[in-house]
Amino acid sequence: MSDPMDTIRAGFFEECGELMEVLEAGLLALQDGTSDADTIASIFRAVHSVKGGAGAFDMASLVAFAHDFETLLDGVRSGTVAQSPALVATLLRAADRLSDLIELSRDGREPTDDFDELAAHLRDLETASPPVGDFTPVALDFGLDPDPEPEPAEQAAAASDAPQDMLTWQIAFRPHSELFSSGNEPLFLFRALAVLGRIAVSIDDSALPNLANLDPDLASLAWRITLIPSANDLTETEIEAIFEFAEDLCDITLECAMAPASVAPAWPDAQLPTTTAPPAAAPPPPASPAKPVPPAGSVTPPPAAKTIRVDLDRVDRLVNLVGELVISQSMLARSISLAGHDGQSDIMDGLDGLQQLTRDIQDSVMSIRAQPVKSLFQRMTRIVREAAQATGKEVRLEVVGEGTEIDKTVVERLADPLTHMIRNAIDHGLESPAERLAAGKPQTGIVRLSAAQQSDRVVIEVTDDGRGIDRGRVLARAVARGLVEPDTRLETHEIDRLLFRPGFSTNDEVSQLSGRGVGLDVVQKAIRDLNGVVSIASEDGIGCSMSASLPLTLAILDGMVVTAANQRMVIPLSAIVETQTLASAKIRNLGPGRNVAALQGVFVPMVDLAQGMGFPPTQNTRDDDRAILFLRPGEAAAYALQVDAIDSQGQVVIKGLADAFGRVPCVSAATILGDGQVALIVDPTSLAEAAGLARAPRPATHLEIVA
Amino acid sequence: MTISDPILDTAPDQPNVSAAGRTELLTFQCGGRAYAVDIMNVREIRSWSPPTPLPHSPAYMLGMVNLRGSVLPVMDLAQRLGAQATEDHPRNVIIVVTVNDRVHGLLVDAVSDIVHPDLNQLQDVPPSGATGHVDMADKLFVEGEAMIQILSIDRVLPARILADEAVLP
Predict the structure, then answer these.
(1) Which chain B residues contact residue A690 at CB under 8 A?
(2) Of A574, A547, A552, A555, nearest to A682 (Cα)?
C-alpha cells in the first residue's frame, strides 16, 4: 500500500524535472542573446511553479531559495534588474542550485553545504538594481485589482453608495514566517477577499525592525483589511474559507460591524488605503515598482503539449508483448515451413503480411520509448560549466543533433558516462587559456557534443580542440602501472585503448574533477552494458574525440544464430565483419591451442565459441557446416570465431539476465528463439577478453604476414 | 507472550485462516529427502524441459527455460543443497518460486502434497555439526514418519553473480 501522497510527490518531482528543462533551455537562450519577454516569462514561470509545488510539500529550503530566485527573475522581467552576461551566469548557477535542492528534497535530505551565499547574492542583485523612488517600503502600489484603484474619495463615495445597513468586516491578518516559507502569498488571499466585495487593505509595520536588525526570513508585517461585502448575507465561514489553507500559519481575527457612511475612519492611520506591502517574507524590496505577480494579461499560458504521460511499466508491457508477437510469429513461420508449404501458397502470403505488420508494430512501439537526447545534452551544459569553473579553463559547449532519438533507458543510463567523457575532455583534453594562447589557439576551448543516427545505431561523440592524447605519457604511465611490459611497441590506437584499462589515470595530481579513482574504464563498462562500443581518436595539438556507438533500442537485436556445443547462440550482427566456411578459411597453427585465421590477408587470433563459453567441445558435428565468423567488436582488434554451424539470421528479442543472474561473463542477454528455446546472446568483446585476446597486445595478435 | 490465540481456538475449521496459527506449505521430494516451502512463495509448478546452460556458472545452476516468453533461471535444488545431481525422471518438475521480485525455478524429484501444520508443530532445525554449511532451512516438522524441512527461499536462491571482475583475470 503506497501513501497517496507519495504518488503526488513523485508527480511533483517528475514535473520539476520538466520545469528545470524549461528553465535551463530558457537560460541558455538568454545566454545566446535571446532575451525576449516570452523567454524570461517562461523562466519565471518555471521557478514559480517549482516554488508553488515545493510549498505544498513543506520543503522549506527549496521554497526559500526558489523565492529569492523568483524575486530576482521578476526584477529581470520588469526591467529593474539590468541584463548582463554576469547576471545570466548567476542565473545559471542559481538554476544548478535549484536543481540540487530539488534532488535533495526528493531524497528527503537537507542541504548540507551553504547556499545562503548564493541566495544572498541573488537578493543583492535584486536590490542593487537602480532603486525607483525613495525607500518607502510600505507605500508601494500593488494594484490589487486589475481595475484602477479607486481614490479614497471615490471609495468613500462607493461605500456611501452602499446601503446604509451594509455590514463591514474587519480582518486582522498577521502571517507567521511559515506562511511565506510554505509558498503562500498574501496578495492572493487579498484577491480572493476582493471577490467577496470591496476591500481596503492597510499595513501594520509597527513590528518591523529597522534595516540593520532585520531578519529577512521573519515575517514582521501585518495587515488590516476592511471588507464591504457585495452580498449582504456574507457569513464568517465564507471569509474563513479563504484563509483555510493559511489558518495555521497566521493569526487572524474577524470582526463584524455595521458600516458607517464611509469606511475611511475604520483605518485612520492609513494614508493610502489601498496599498499593501510586498507580499514577500523578505523586507519589502525597495525596487520593483511592479508587483511580483504577473499582470493578468501578460502571461500567455504555456502551449498545451499534445502528449500524455504514461506509466513506463505500461509501455514496457507493450514492448514485451510485441516481443512475444515476434517470437510467436517466428514459431508460426517455422511450423508452416515444416508443414511443407512453399513460397507460392496463400498461407505464405498471409505470413508475409503478418511479418510486415509485426515489424511496423515493433517500430512504432519502439518509437514510443524513443526520446530525443536533448534533455541529456542540456544537463551536460551544467557539467561543462562546473568543470570549466573547477579547472579554471574557458570552455564553450557546442551541441549538434540534439533532436536525435534513442531509447529512454539508453538516454537515462548515458548521463553518467557522458558526464565522465565531458569532464575528461575538459580536464585532460583542453589546455589552460595561457597554454592555448601560446599554441596559437583561441583562448576559449571548444567541447563539441554531437549525436547522429547511423542506420540502426546512434553515435554520440564528445570532441575537444585541446592538445590531444599525449601518447608518450600514456605509455609511460601504463608501464609504471604494470599494464604493459616495458619496451613494448604499440600502435597508436593500442596506446589509446590503454586509457580504457581499469586503474589508469594520466593526470599526476589528483584533480578535483576526475580524481576519484575512476577512469575511462567506467565509461567503457557503462557503454558496454548498453550494448554499445566506445572508440577514441586523437590528433596531437588538434584535439581528441571520443565516441560511443549505441543501439537504438535495448529490446531488439539483429543477430546471427549459430550452433556450438549443441547450443544455439546469437552473435550480434553489428560485430560481424565477414563469414567463411571452415573449409575455405586459411587457418594456421601457431602452437597448441593457438590458431590464427586470415581475414583479408591479415591473420587474426581464432577462438572456439564452445570453448570460449566454457562449454564442453562438440564431438559429432559435420565438418561441412563448420564456419568462421570474423568479429570486430567496436574498435577492438578483430578475431575469428569458430562455430559448429550457422543457423539463421534475423531479429531477436532481448531478454535481460541481470535481474536473475547479475552479470554473466561472455553473455550480454538471452533471447527466445522460434521454437521456444532460450538462447544466449554472446557479447563479443567480453568473449575476446575471456579468451585472453584483449590483454596487453602480444606479438601473436599482430602478425601481418600475407598468406 | 503465551499462545492462547483466540483465532486459533475459534477457527480450526476454516482452512484459509492460516495467517494466525497455521501455515500452508507445499511439500516435495528432493535428493531423497522431504522438503517444504511456504505456498505463498510458489507461483506455479511446471513440467521439466531441458534448460539452456549458462557459461561460467555453478554446477547447480542448470540454465534457463522459457516461461511463457520470459527467461526463467532454473537450478537443481538437490545440488544446491549439497546432494547428488537430480536424475532424469518423468516425475521431475520445476517449482517456480518468487521472492523479493525474483522468480526462480527449482528442479525437484516430485511434488508431494499441500499441508497445513499448526505453527506450534514446527520445530527449530537443530544446529548441525557440519562446518561451512549454511542451513537452508530454519524449521522442520514431522508428518507421520517423515521429517520435513521448511526451506528459506531467500537463502536457497544464490546471490546474483557479480562477475564484473571475474572476466579479466
Answers:
(1) 167
(2) A574
* Portion 662-691 of A in contact with B at CB < 8 A: 662-667, 670, 672, 676-680, 686, 689-690
Long-range Cβ contact pairs of A10-13 (< 8 A, separation 24 or more): A12/A53, A12/A54, A12/A56, A12/A57, A13/A102, A13/A105, A13/A106
Q: Do A664 and B167 touch (CB under 8 A)?
A: no
Per the prediction, chain A carries an average pLDDT of 76
A313 in contact with chain B, both atoms CB, cutoff 8 A: no
In whole angstroms, give the CA distance from residue A332 to residue A347.
11
Threshold 0.95, pTM exceeds: no
Q: Helix (H, G, I), strand (E, B), or coil: what is residue B143?
A: strand
What per-residue confidence (pLDDT) applies to B82? 83
Q: Does residue B59 carry a pLDDT above 70?
A: yes
Instruction: Compute the distance between CA of residue B54 and CA of residue A677 in angstroms, rounded to an integer.
Output: 13
Q: Could you give the CA distance from residue B108 to residue B95 in angstroms, rounded to a whole number?
A: 7
Grid cell listed for A638: 578483430
The rounded distance, in Å, linking the Cα atoms of A661 and A655 is: 12
- Residue A663 and residue B65: Cβ atoms within 8 Å? no
Of B54, B66, B167, the CB nearest to A676: B66
Beta-carbon separation of A665 and B167 below 8 A: yes
Distance CA A418, CA A558 (A): 26
Asked if B107 reaches chain A (Cβ–Cβ under 8 Å), the answer is: no
Q: Which three cell numbers stand for residue A143?
A: 494594484
Separation between Cα atoms, residue B77 and residue B13, nearest integer Å = 35
CA atoms within 13 A on the CB side of A140: 24
Number of neighbours of residue A124 by Cβ within 10 angstroms:
12
* H or E stretch covering A87: helix A85-106
Q: How do residues A29-60 score in pLDDT, each as one tens digit?
A: 888 777 777 888 888 888 888 888 887 777 88
Q: Is the pLDDT of residue B96 over 90?
A: yes
Torsion of CA A344, A346, A350, A353, to 10 degrees: 50
Q: In this structure, how many other beta carbons lie within 10 angstroms of the beta carbon of residue A331?
A: 15
Q: Find the closest chain A residue to B56 by CA distance.
A: A614
Count of C-beta atoms within a 10 Å radius of residue A382: 17
- List the one residue out of A421, A409, A502, A427 whose CA is nearest residue A467: A427
Q: Are A216 and A167 in contact (CB under 8 A)?
A: no
Which set of grid coordinates corresponds to residue A532?
554499445
Query: Which chain A residue has the Cα nearest residue B163?
Result: A663
Residue labelled with grid coordinates 570474423: A630
- Residues in chain B within 8 Å Cβ distance of A666: 55-56, 167
Strands A543-551 and A457-464, how do they pair? antiparallel
Q: B102 to chain A: which residues are within 8 Å by CB?
A: 659-660
Interface contact flag, B57 A667, Cβ < 8 Å: no
Q: Please give, rounded to a whole number of angstroms, the shortest distance from the CA of A320 to a CA of chain B.
A: 9
C-alpha cell at position A367: 518509437
In sequence order, what are the residues at sequence separation of 6 or more whose Cβ sits closer than 8 angstroms to the Cβ of residue A419? A380, A383
> Residue B27: which of B98, B123, B93 has the closest Cα?
B93
A:434-453 residues touching chain B, CB 8 A cutoff: none
User: CA neighbours within 13 Å on the CB side: how many for A657?
Assistant: 33
Choose the weakest-confidence range: A162-171, A487-496, B34-43.
A162-171
What residues of A are in contact with residue B73 (Cβ under 8 Å)?
Answer: 660-661
pLDDT digits (tens, 9 = 90+) for A463-515: 999 888 888 888 888 888 777 777 777 777 778 878 887 767 655 444 444 44
> Residue B137 corresponds to which cell in the numbers above?
532451512
The answer to whether A522 faces chain B, any CB pair under 8 Å, is no
Q: Cα torsion at A123, A129, A132, A133 (round to 10°)? A: 80
**Cα–chain center distance at A241:** 41
